[in-house]
Amino acid sequence: MGVCVHTCPCTRTLLAAMQGKLEGLAPTADPPFKAAEVAVKATALAGVCEPIMRTPKPLPKVEPAPAEEAKADAPPAEGAEAAEGAAAAEPAAAAEPAPSAPDNMDVD
């Protein structure tokens, strides 16, 4: 990665210098550099940066949640029993179907 960080700005300044040489030149004058020189620089830059760009991202680490396992093994407290009863009532309310929109609605 350090090589790419150093190579990219160097290549950018070199290309800016080459473009500056071309801007001040008459259209009929010989160019100050050849296209092969630009192609060599482009190939060198691609050789440095392509492996970095093609490296796949690492997969995220999946860690088991030890806190959930500890809660399942521990006996429930007195206050937890009331919370579990309230939690059991919520899924029953959520199981009721929501009213759906009529099928004959006009949509613009």
The residue fraction in helices comes out at: 55-70%
Shape: flat
Give unreliable regions as ranges: none
User: Over all CA atoms, what is the radius of gyration?
Assistant: 33 Å
Element-level helix/strand string? HHHH
What's the N-to-C terminus distance? 54 Å
On the 0 to 100 scale, the average pLDDT is 74
Helix and strand content put the structural class at mainly alpha
Q: Assess the beta-strand content as a share of residues.
A: under 5%
Number of strands: 0
Number of helix segments? 4
Largest sheet geometry: none
What would you note in describing this structure?
This protein is mostly helical. The protein has a domain at 2-54. 62% of the residues lie in helices and 0% in strands. The protein has four helices and no strands. α1 (2-23) packs antiparallel against α2 (35-54). The longest helix is centred in the N-terminal third of the chain and has 22 residues, at 2-23. The chain is flat, with a radius of gyration of 33 Å. The model has no long low-confidence stretch (mean pLDDT 74).
Question: Briefly, what is this?
Answer:
The protein is an all-alpha fold and 108 residues long.
